[in-house]
């Protein structure tokens, strides 16, 4: 275990007293309030160390998730670029089709006007 944490140092400080309490207990001697408080302190320090370890695991998982989300964000950006290109191609295709249809419409209308003028002159 890493001995740089404050809680580890505190456990080391009370370890001699814990050994005395364990000997007292194994000899069937009663524990006083100070002994009980020392055992509670050790229990709390161990619990804090355990929570610190879990917090470190969660922090590592969150950091990993950040990396995953960054990668995912890059993929979405790439996908967005592809959609932009596709959108431009579709707009270009639609514009070409509209221009072609407009020219066809103008040509048909022009032919219709010419044809109706020809029919009008032939009838008279």
| Fraction in helix | over 70%
- Give the biggest sheet: none
Structural class category: mainly alpha
**Shape summary:** rod-shaped
Tell me the number of helical segments per DSSP (H or I, 4 or more residues long). 2
Low-confidence stretches: none
Query: Approximately what portion of the residues adopt beta-strand conformation?
Result: under 5%
Radius of gyration: 43 Å
Mean pLDDT: 88
- Alpha-carbon distance between the termini? 113 Å
In N-to-C order, the SSE pattern is HH
Number of strands: 0
Could you walk me through the main structural features you see in this protein, from its secondary elements to its overall organization?
This protein has 124 residues and is mainly α. The chain is built from 2 helices and no strands. It has helices spanning 6-26, 33-123. The longest helix has 91 residues, at 33-123. The protein is rod-shaped, with a radius of gyration of 43 Å.
Secondary structure layout plus pairing:
Blueprint (H helix, E strand, L loop, with lengths): L5 H21 L6 H91 L1
Helix pairs in contact: 1-2
List key phrases describing it.
124 residues; mainly alpha; rod-shaped
Short account of what is shown:
The chain is mainly alpha-helical and about 120 residues long. Helices cover about 90% and strands about 0% of the residues.
